[in-house]
């Protein structure tokens, strides 16, 4: 199986106040600045896990684990989990085909 995999996940940092956001905003909710630069979050702490057991119209669906995490850069995001990491675990973030994923730090 081949796929494009990159270390870290892109977050957007306000040029004025340095607060980081995900996904990208039009205006910074903190200082109302409108200029952002791309940054990368590499680590996150798992806050909550959900499991998607069924998907409408999909046969042979394998249960998938989704984690809501808080990145080391600040913003929370939802990522696909590639292992059994639970709440409180520190995971490394990566992108696969443009989507955010996480797995336990090795
Ligand atoms: Zn700002």
Brief summary:
With 106 residues, the protein is an all-beta fold. The chain has no helices and nine strands. It has strands at 5-7, 9-14, 20-21, 36-41, 43-52, 64-71, 76-81, 90-96, 99-104.
Provide an overview of this structure.
This protein is mainly β and 106 residues long. The protein contains no helices and nine strands. Strands 5-6-7-9-8 form a five-stranded mixed beta barrel. A three-stranded antiparallel beta sheet has the order 3-2-4, with no helix packed on it. 19% of the residues are buried. Zinc ion is lined by residues 14, 16-17, 19, 28, 30-31, 33.
Which terms would index this structure?
single chain; 106 residues; mainly beta; 3-stranded antiparallel beta sheet; elongated; binds zinc ion
Strand line-up of the largest beta sheet: 5-6-7-9-8
Helix and strand composition category: mainly beta
Series of secondary-structure elements, N-terminal to C-terminal: EEEEEEEEE
User: Helical residue percent?
Assistant: under 10%
Quick one: overall form? elongated
Report Rg: 15 Å
Ligands (ions, cofactors included): zinc ion
Q: What's the assembly state of these chains?
A: single chain
Helix count, DSSP H or I runs of 4 or more residues: 0
Strand content: over 45%
Instruction: List segments where confidence is low: pLDDT < 50 over at least 5 consecutive residues.
Output: none
Mean pLDDT: 93
Termini gap: 22 Å
Reported for the largest beta sheet, the result is: 5 strands, mixed, barrel
The number of strands is: 9
